[in-house]
Amino acid sequence: MLGAIGLDERQETAYRALVALGAAEVPDLARRLALPEPETERALRGLESQGLAAQSSARTGRWVAAPPAVALGPLLTQQRHDLEQAELAAAALAQEYRAKAAEPAVHDLVEVVTGAAAVAHRFRQLQLGAAREVCALVTGEPVAVTGPENQAEETAVARGVAYRIVVERSVLALPGSIGELSAALGRGERVRVVDRVPTKLVVADGTLAMVPLSGRGAEPAALVVHASGLLESLTALFDAVWGVALPLRLGGGDVVGEDGPGGPDATDLEVLSLLLAGLTDASVAKQLDLGLRTVQRRVRNLMELAGVTTRLQLGWHARERGWMSQDGAAADGLGGEGDGGAGIRGDGVGGEGDGGAGVRGEGDGGEGVWDGSLPG
């Protein structure tokens, strides 16, 4: 117990015995400790050097213990001081380490992982370490972990981590894939499909990515990419594929269905046309005899289908995808009384004068329909 202040086991035993006896000669103390006399004397000399024992001035060869309250106090004070200095040194080293880690060397930005077991372990770590979102491009040929083996995905989702996944169309034909996709959609994951993905890819929180490295027939290997320009490029690659992929939805009986390119139905197109014409959500609901929440839900679905986050983007995508040319939904003049037509079809998108509603335009077609965030 007294080792914390610098006493070894024999010195502590000798001091305790000397305190109990009050005073003792070397032969008597050696018998009590069951130690040879030379070792007992060395222990006493060590105690003397630390001020815990002294030879009696009244009787030669007799040793007396120093009062513990007096003798141990300075040693404890010194020990506390040494611990405080050690804590300060540790804090300084930690700060130096963090500063160094904030500017990693080039060779620290990319980590090479080799072997199926190592790749699977790193893949699991990447998902379990995510705090916000995991984005993945999935092909039909797993490198080290199959869908049923990826238990980390379910664990991460249970912690509140969002998943965005794009799968190749060929994955839908694999045995068991529909069940896995149904389970993912049932957990609230967002899944889309595309004809082909350029590469397997996993990105966690936008701070760490993993891509396969090995070619056909070689030992499984992967690159783990840390924060860098390369990571930003991989994140942009995922966003680009996500933007053109089509959402998968869970139908009745847990059947997975794919939203085709002509996803919007006739009512969706009517809602979109009236919004582009400058009507508010409430006015659209009244015109089409729908509930306000129904209109807002349809707009949300259109935004998700288009892969956008604002109504301004939805208007642009509606034109790019040809939605506004279906069933005469984009007839000239929908934008109001001006010559330009309805916002995205006219010459006066967002402009001043008679060019139509545009995006917060100042013409006769109305304003403020597309500038706000989606209600509800």
From TrEMBL:
Residues 333-360 have a biased composition (Gly residues). It comes from the Bacteria. Residues 76-103 form a coiled coil. Residues 327-376 are annotated as: Disordered. InterPro entries: Sig_transdc_resp-reg_C-effctor, TrmB-like, Tscrpt_reg_LuxR_C, Tscrpt_reg_TrmB_N, WH-like_DNA-bd_sf. Keywords: Coiled coil. Residues 261-318 form the HTH luxR-type domain. Pfam families: TrmB. This is Helix-turn-helix transcriptional regulator.
